[in-house]
Records
---
Amino acid sequence: MQLSRRAFLASSLAALSIPTWASSMPIEAQGELFFSAFSKSKTEHFIGAFGSHGKLLWSMPLPDRAHAPVVHPTHSVVGAVARRPGFYMDFFNPFTGQAIQRIEPLAEHHFYGHAVFSQDGTRLITQENHFPTGAGKVVVRAWPEGQVLNEYSSGGIGPHESVLLTPDTLVIANGGLRTHPDNDREIMNLDSMSPNVTFLSLSDGSVINQAQHEPSLHQLSIRHLDVNAQGVVALGFQYQGELWDKVPLVALASVDSDALEYLDMPEHVRARFKQYCGSVCFDKSGKTLAISTPRGGFVAYWDVPTRAFLGVDNCRDVCGLVATNKKDQFVLTSGTGKQLISTPRTQNISQLNQLADIHWDNHLRRIDINI
Amino acid sequence: MSMTKKALTATAALLAASSAFANQWDDTLEQMQSQYIVPKYESFSSSANALADATATLCAAPNSANLATAKQAFNDNLAHWQQVQWLNFGPVTYFMRYYAYEYWPDKKGVTQRQLRTLSMDPSTMTTPKFWTSASIAVRGMTAIESLLYHGDFNVIRKPSDCEVLEAISRHHAQTTHDVLTQWQQSKATDWIFPEEGSTESAEHLVVELLVQQWLEHMSVVKDAKLETPIGYKGQPNLKLAEFYRSEQSLPAIETNLKAYRTLYHLGQPSLFDTAMAEQPELAQALEAALADNVKLALQLPKDYFTGQYTQAERVEMAKPLVQSISNSQTQLTNLVTSMGFQIGFNSRDGD
């Protein structure tokens, strides 16, 4: 089915409650679909989808390297958010191959590689950097029109990833790093950076709560996060200090937290992280937490109720991580093109597929089509 | 020949080729270990022992001659370290040994501060488990250099300073001996973490990791050892140069760059041999880049880091070497990726 842009927008606006993901699904992809950006070379970048057997079902070229996909909650719309400093967000219907929309950041702003739809799919929420001042922003746009509805302070510098805690509460990982697109890998505030996790009201932009490290850990950038059904927020860090410093790399928080609760792990595992967490992900039950580290080449797991460390799955250059619809089960993707499925509590891991010449990018998203 | 026979012959040839290819990495890796890693660690361990002995002699008879001998032993040991510094893999990655060898750059003077504390009561260093909990800032060569060369310490006139020096030197020698022993008693493939569904041989994965280490070290040489202290892109701070007190900053770079060439040609077949068979143009380009690195480093004046040069003069002198190292990073990346090695996609992203 090929819809014109006008027809698609009209149908979207008219029938937001109808899950078009399900009605549009090809037979071979029934069940679930996984989305990720990927690259084939330094100049060939894509967004793509694969099914539960790992076969690539759809892909679209992108103008530049993307970081994370953003998936509409009800309609067959997936977006690719450009890698920091990002200047585009391209949306597609993966079943028609149609390019739906390109969203660009506010003037003198760039994206951070992540975005999220509101729970009802009527708003698109992005994190942006006002690079002349370094102010972190949360920008709320109407979907699919793209008009800016609200522009809030993110509560810090360098808002990287955000997730919805409730329909009205956004949790933001303010990484603390001030950068400028003219030299985007240079950190301009290494000595003064102050990352935090901010709970923000989407109604009025007010800060509901914030939690941060003690001052001696101010270079511990809070970059990625996930939230489970119990309202527990998991946080993965990227340390900007020395490789040899013994710093915590994973923590939990909640909307009531006045401090971060760091998770323990064996020191030899912590050292293997190389001070760098990639993706953060709870399983379906919210009781198993997975954190990937591409620099360490593994995914580490914790039991959330007891905070106990469970173990690791080794995988070179792994970063993409998403929960399946079964408890304690994750799908992993790597820069070497691998797709793995893991059940860490039973220590079962197997390879779904490995796609030659594909480098799966940092983040993986999944939709369940059996809505 | 029928199509079936042709297909079988082709398949057999392919299998033979891939088998030979796999064996090739087996041999290359085995020789990297037996002809480079182990012998270089033997040298490093031997000179660490000599350093420990020299500091013991110095503390027993503190005088200028014995201090000069200890300093020379330190410089010898440092030169051996620079040959294996690129290899942050295997035994050295355990117990923070790699970072304890060299606590650098020590931007906040942690080493001096902790050494002063230890010198107030060196007997604490003989307590059980002292070294298992000791800060990495006082476990290796950065601390030894401070005690031998920093003006705050006087190992001739102050016995407690010398006592600290002797204890650290002995610990450093023991650590190096332990790393050597582990390399002697293991295979390089013992030190990787196997992953599910890997289609590459363990030898391939180790060579891949070694290449990644090599690439990372090239960045350290260019950025941390050369650009940062001279203010190539910002403010100069020569105290950030590696081992600047012992004036070993430039010799360290020269040794590193020479080690790269040795690595490239190590074994039969060497990485260079295999590259020449598969990608002759890229192989030659890397060969030329590595040779240029050494030539350009040797052209820098001996007092490059210590002489009375302005920032602009140092930057101007460094430009050809910086560009050459950068070029060799590109050439190495192009070569190894064309040979099927993964140098990291997400792991080099930083976001």
Note: The longest strand of chain A covers residues 359-368.
---
Amino acid sequence: MKRTLTRRELLRLMMAGSGAAVLAACGGQGQGGQPAPQATQAPAVVSQPGSKVKITYWGSFSGNLGEAEQAMVKSFNESQNEVEVEYQFQGSYEETAQKFTAALQANTTPDVILLSDVWWFGFYLAGAITALDDLAKQVNLDFNDYEPVLLNEGVRKGVHYWIPFARSTPLFYYNKAIWAEAGLPDRAPETWAEFSEWAPKLVKSDGSRAAFGHPNGASYIAWLFQGVVWQFGGQYSQPDFTMTMTDPNTLRAAQFYQDTVVKHKWAVLNANLNQDFLGGAIASMMASTGALAGIQANATFPVGVGFLPKETNFGCPTGGAGLAIVSRAPAEKQLAAMKYIAFATNTVNAGVWARSTGYMPVRISTKQTPEMVEFFTKNPNFKTAVDQLPKTRAQDAARVFVRNGDQIIGKGLERIIVNGEAPSAVFAAVNEELTQAAKPILEDLKAREG
Amino acid sequence: MAVTNEIERAMKPVNVRRRPIPLSLLAWRIVGYAAMIVVVVIIGLPVYWTVMAAFKETREIYSLPVTWWPAKPTLANFPAAWQAAPFGRYYLNSFITTFFGAAAEVILALFSAYALAYLRFPRKDLVFLLLLAALMVPVEITIVPNYLTVARLGWINTYQGIIIPGAAIAYGTFLLRQAFLAVPHEILEAARVDGAGHFRILFSVVAPITQPAIVTMALLSVVSKWNDFLWPLIVTNTTDMRTLPIGVFWLRNSEGFSNWGVVMAGSLFLIVPVLIGFLLAQRAIVEGMTAGAVKG
């Protein structure tokens, strides 16, 4: 008699089989959890001699910025026939960085990538982006013509890793109509003391208008407060990652921010400042130069801009994003990527990009090109933004190099301004949190730079 | 809707003949209606705002005080949004990934729920527990491992790369199993006596009775696939493989200043097909309820 399997036996067999499959899958991973060797090897030769080198470029620009970016790539592809760039939109700065992280593990990386001020450093530490000096030499790129304050941010140990591209700075915006109504001179305040005298005249007593607006943590208050801290003679941290949030001058700046809202009541904290400014709910604000074109196009009143107010010093940070080349890309593609970076940031194109987006021209010589001179005459506000640029400086490590540092400081500021908590207590806690968050970075930094 | 209206009409004469409703009951009824109005406003206001903003000029959207009706209605946002990105291609990709993704999810959920509800096999409780555990894993955690798997299969930037990792979702199985358990035993036994096999029982008996649950599950599945943003963004690279939500995101400026009128017009491209799907499916949910009322 033929013996057939009972259902119970069949199930047991199936389970054993699937267990073996799981084991087999683990074996494919290679020894000790290391990725399989072929996953990390870059292909040696990519193209046939004489054919175009195709490179992939990941970026975060959408809307009209995205269109400007696509136009830049198109004009590069049409300008020569050695390299073809494909621009691939990957979402916000955060999503692009997230996807790059996953792509590094899966070996599906692009060749050139746009990284924001708070992200490039992490990839530098991980060795994911490559040194650019040799590549720059091969394409005759002159680093001396880049705005030094922007370029030097991307330099570690004398080596360039991150080339400035879409860079912005904060600017003081004011509503000229309200200014005239209050009888104030048509300019931005020289100092915070002067603005404190002006502010009560700008406020509407029924509460429908404040003199000044602060953004919230999610809209990067820590970026704008960076400048204010410097103006008061303080800082977030020292270059060696020693946190200085409890420095008396840093606390003085925080106390000033709290007073504007809690004590003097002429400022408000709000998520969408552009909206409040355009609607006339606030008379002035500090905001990115990148918003200038949009605000001017949609305002129903004349818009004035000026340098940030001073306290004991002038202080203004840089921001925005730059371009980096992926270490893992084959040499041929790295060189092609460098050619694209050189093109997108050359004297003429840096001007094209600045005029169509509102970002700063990253090349010094761009300011003298006839197109730019003409643009400045038509847009004196944009000239003000560019004139402020040489006076700006790179941000403190606490905000840009510590993971999530921007949000840690931003949430602390929200507690001080919104909840009215004492700056000394809140920033002591922030100091501790930043110090903890910096520890792994310091270890990585030691491993990377010695 | 139609059914509840009929019920109300049927109830009315009875109410009229009786004495007036007690005051406390009336008060509760007012509270109930007030709560309903609050809920409708909370849900409806953002939708209303989206629709109105799509017909406004950007300058008007940014102006205060807010306008509840476009002062200068304009249709310019729609062609502007349509031309800013290849929305025709996005529609095609969204239809393909949503249709196949949701179909796979519903079919797999039907079969697995049937097995878990009616079949007897050893360690069934353990299988169900495993399913519940899968239900608890947040999607965010699985994104990177899924990406690595899909990348090693060479499925980056393909339809199967978008569809397959989401083809089996534990919540669908869980939802349908619960609905299947509520089907009266007598009906199934009757079907079995009549000689129906598993497939016949599933498709001719269980599925029609639990139609509301299945349609609800399918609807949830369709909406989640249609609106899914992060996974398609991560697993695709080129514009011709992207789906609608990414197209809408593309209309926004990541830094600086967004043209909200155009973004809202793009959002309507996304919302309208789902809204139509919802209206059609709602009929199936109500019909299922009446069709299921056979046991007596």
Note: Residues 87 and 93 of chain B are 10 Å apart (CA to CA).
---
Amino acid sequence: MSATIDLPGFADPARDAQRAFRAVLAAMAEPGSLRMAGDDLIAPAPLAPATAAVLLTLVDGDMSLAMDAATYPAHPWVIFHCGTTLTEPAKARFIVALDCPDLSTLPSGSDEAPEESSTLILQVRALGSGTPYCLSGPGLRSPMILRADGLPADFAAHWAANHALFPRGIDIILCAGATLVALPRSMTVENA
Amino acid sequence: MDAAADPPSPGLTERQRWMAVLARANAAELAALLETVPPLPAYRRLRGPESGLVMLRGRTGGAGAAFNLGEMTVTRCTVRTDDGLTGHAYVAGRDARQAELAALVDALLQDATRHSAVQQAVINPLAEAQQRRRERDGRKAAATRVDFFALATMRATP
């Protein structure tokens, strides 16, 4: 493990984690809005700075984390800096993926405890450009267009099934470069 | 924390031994000894030095149920040298410089080409000084020792 960590985490852990937390909070409160996170962080490949910043901010030893195989080179860095171990997606509260997994296989909580669902941190190629999606729902005064490059072609259909589970369901944080966008389970996402 | 702690017990790995010595050294000692082993590789900090609290656990009578004894201030640091070696250090107290130097020495000691030089120049003198301090404190304490005899121990003593 020690042979493969060669990058530091946040330069100023308390301040940087608070800034990233604020970004995630604002993104969740206003779905579809682009927020900056991790802009001064050097992330381990293949993670984007925003993905790494979200992990450093939200994951610690008390949280279960799963990462897909494509992120393998970054695993030692995440394990060391977050102080956590990796588990399988079916047991994880946070899931990091470069390819969107089947949302129906991830823990979506129960009707008694919907907060026990997992949050998917999905890294995409770009945000603000690419395929347009129409978002509407709580937090948005009027429907808006989100452009994202790298989501699967049938994402809107998968999301509709996830949205239908409400109050259960997966929340997604989309990350690309140093920007992130949140898609809480309460959102309606349609192809625009 | 001073060197009056327990002597290193057998069964520790070599790395645990040198980490124990480094954890009991202070920053000034470490810096002075490190100057005798040039040239040092450049390094960068991967984490810290940062201070935090560690919960110490104890067992009643040494064997009973575990309980939380209290919290202790600990400073940790991880560095990576340009040679690609990673050194870790956890030291008692809040001396960030000590933690950083101890992590650096931990990394140097993992380098086969430097190990013996660093071991002789840094670890051995520190270990001897700590051993002397421990013996001196032991003698001071032994001079004021009082044996209490209870009836049971008097009977057991011939």
Note: Residues 14-156 of chain B form one domain.
